[in-house]
Amino acid sequence: SGRGGDVWDDEMSSSMLGSRLRKVVQNYQAMNKYGVQLSGPGGVSSRPKLSGPELLCQLKDNVEVTTLTSDLQPFSALPWAAQLPPKPLTSELGPYKSCAVVSSAGSLRYSGLGKEIDSHDAVLRFNAAPTTGYEKDVGSKTTIRLINSQVMASDDHRFLSSSLYSSGVLVAWDPAPFSADLTQWYNRTDYPIFTQYQRYRRLHPLQPFYILHPRFEWQVWQRIQDNMAEPIQKNPPSSGLLGTVLMMSLCEVVHVYEFLPSRRKTELCHYYQRFYDAACTLGAYHPLLYEKNLVKRMNQGSNRDIYTHGRVTLPGFNRLNC
Ligand code: C5P
């Protein structure tokens, strides 16, 4: 609150959540489904707090945006290897000048941001987020769609047949165990990403379709944990942060919409569904609260931009002099 408007404070902690969400987050912090091992010396709070530019350089230096290619073991030995792209995403797409990352937050509803979003050279959207019927608020251009393996596998999303997924470049991801190699992951994915990938490729052979290397998700997770004063959920980051980092590797400048909530902040989960839950904005399974703290610290735009447009401005990795 105050005249600068109510924007995300970069030190949000689980103690600021309501008691229901706090318990859910505590459960996830304890569960450790993926066998995450905390690295580094000493306690989590002993490190100095890095500045925005330092965080940006740390992200650039420690996170490798990679995708699976047909020559990569163990895939290269499988009969369907040729369905995977021969080259990684970052060598085939971009560089783009200006990009938009459109979170699916309910606060995009009635935002009127559609024109601004479409004015960027490339637009990234997530999962089942539609544009039809919502053009005024979210625009209509889709350059890349980042989808999780749950959406690919669930019956209600009709991933194989819905036209929602047929424009732009698809990028899919599925969480691997923290220290697993590709073979261990291949034999134990969260959802059947590879079966669905092969089916989709047979039906839409001309549409570019990439799969993120699961190491990428944990590298991003490590950047969050290393820069927070408390333990974060031992689950992969949300699509929102993964897509933002992906675009930072393809674009000169990245604008993220309604990831840090504007004055339109609402418990409406998605702009396209009538479902209300504060966990969508604050996180439960994903360490979303901490992802937002990190993005707030790296933001190069003004707090006013966040308050009015829900807009954060981040430099692309190529524009950083680290
Ligand atoms: O729900 P879904 O993962 O498809 O949404 C895409 C991303 O948008 C999320 O991963 C999250 O980062 C962001 N989001 C948000 N607040 C919401 C809904 C989504 O920050 N209320």
Please give a structural write-up.
The chain contains 13 helices and 7 strands. The protein has helices at residues 19-31, 52-62, 89-92, 114-118, 135-138, 149-153, 182-186, 193-203, 214-226, 239-248, 279-282, 288-298, 303-309, and strands at residues 96-102, 122-126, 144-148, 169-173, 209-211, 251-257, 311-315. A 7-stranded mixed sheet has the order 5-4-3-2-1-6-7, with helices on both faces. Strand 2, helix 5 and strand 3 form a beta-alpha-beta unit. The model has no long low-confidence stretch (mean pLDDT 94).
Task: Give a nutshell description of this structure.
The chain has 322 residues and is an alpha/beta fold.
Specify Rg, calculated over alpha carbons.
19 Å
Spans of at least 5 consecutive residues with low confidence: none
- Strand residues, percent: 5-15%
- Count of individual domains: 1
Largest sheet: 7 strands, mixed
Q: Please bin the fraction of helical residues.
A: 25-40%
- How widely separated are the two ends? 35 Å
Shape: globular
What is the H-and-E element order?
Answer: HHHEHEHEHEHHEHHEHHHE
Q: What is the CATH superfamily?
A: Glycosyl transferase family 29
> How many β-strand stretches?
7
Distinct ligands, ions and cofactors found in the model: cytidine-5'-monophosphate
Feature tags:
alpha/beta, sialyltransferase cstii, chain A, binds cytidine-5'-monophosphate
Topology:
Elements: H1 19-31, H2 52-62, H3 89-92, E1 96-102, H4 114-118, E2 122-126, H5 135-138, E3 144-148, H6 149-153, E4 169-173, H7 182-186, H8 193-203, E5 209-211, H9 214-226, H10 239-248, E6 251-257, H11 279-282, H12 288-298, H13 303-309, E7 311-315
The structure holds cytidine-5'-monophosphate.
Residues 103-106, 126-127, 238-240, 259, 269-270, 280-281, 288 line the site of cytidine-5'-monophosphate.
